[in-house]
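Training component of the fellowship. As part of building independent skills, the fellow (R.M.) carried out the full modelling exercise for a liganded target. The chosen ligand was pyridoxal-5'-phosphate. The inputs are recorded below so that the supervisory panel can assess the work.
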Amino acid sequence: MTATLDTATLARLAGEPVDWRFKGLPPAWSGRSPAQICAAAPDLFEAGPLGPVCVLRDEALTHNLATMARWCDRHGVQLAPHGKTHMSPQLAARQLAAGACAVTVATISQARTYRAFGVSALILANELVDVAGLRWLASELNDDPNFDMLCWVDSVRGVGLMTDALSAAGLRRPLDVCVEVGAAGGRTGCRSEADVDAVARAVVGSPHLRLAGVSGYEAALGHDISPAGRVPIRDFLSTMRSAVLRLADVFETDDVVVTAGGSTHFDLVAETLTGWPDGLTVRTVLRSGCYLTHDDGLYQRTSPLAFTPALSVWAQVCSAPEPGLALLTLGRRDVAFDQDLPIPRGFPDSTVTKLNDQHAFLRVGPTARPEIGDWIEFGVSHPCTVFDKWQMIPVLDAGNRVVELVRTFF
Ligand SMILES: Cc1ncc(COP(=O)(O)O)c(C=O)c1O
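Fellow's submitted model of the complex:
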């Protein structure tokens, strides 16, 4: 089942005038709404962006959405894309239109953002022990009978805190939860079978929670896709499978969910967490987020599918003070640097060696001749930490015409 979102709220967003709040955009667009700008389909680079400027490519987004949707269909899995990647209701709308069953979030604030746009189904891929957050969630669930929410739990104490807070908030229908399976050296999640079973029993004993499935995040163990690197990932997913089988008679919903999968190992998730015994119906839900834009670094090295990079940042050479060194108007404020430094496109023998807050140091190779004033396009590594640096991102067609202006909310 696909989730829905409120298109009228999205349309209102497209009517809000743009101005100096949105870095990178051409000053001439000030006072006009995204709807008006996109109706004129201006060429971004002729319109005079104030570099650096982050862009998305429409064709690549469409390709990645269709590729992932086809793959999920073929493998009998559903997709609840991680919305923390972009925090953009407009991009979530594209994902829902391509068949996504829900939007995943990492925090209760992110859940609020997507609920403000009427997203009807959310997975909070995290523990929720915040009393104010639980109070807000209870009122959302009470007010909207069509809102589906799934949270994770990994401790008996957490189950107790949730139960008390939901009870105090007057929750009138149970909140669905998955028991999270973890692994030594990983992140959240129960570390032993005994812990999984004890947490599951505690959920069953709670009047405000319903045991709906089993969850986990295999990439908390790493992104190594070598055969040796995949061994712990397979083991982890097998542990999740065992938990589903062991708890088969304990789940309290007909719709049992098993959810795992970022954008690196989702092929192993489909391999390990489908094909259930007769009589046990399980919905396998992936939560990949970075597949949507893909990248030129981490995910290009590790994705199991041929996605196309859709996200890049353009910057200008502003100085060339020494032979072999160019400085660009691109810094830590503008681009990801947690996985790899940005990758200059069209300059294969040049590399970014360092980023300051507002500068990139480009070590220029022997064949490259970037001149002061030149614009260079940079591919990125790890889309999540690029999106959070941009509040409005133009989506360009193949001719660099602006077809959408995507808002993010971090
Ligand atoms: C719990 C969880 N699920 C899914 C994802 C999505 O993975 P990716 O960013 O590789 O798309 C993440 C990303 O950090 C995550 O933390």
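The panel noted the following from the submitted structure. The chain has two domains: 7-57+307-407, 120-289. Residues 7-57+307-407 form a domain with the Lyase, Ornithine Decarboxylase; Chain A, domain 1 fold (CATH 2.40.37.20).
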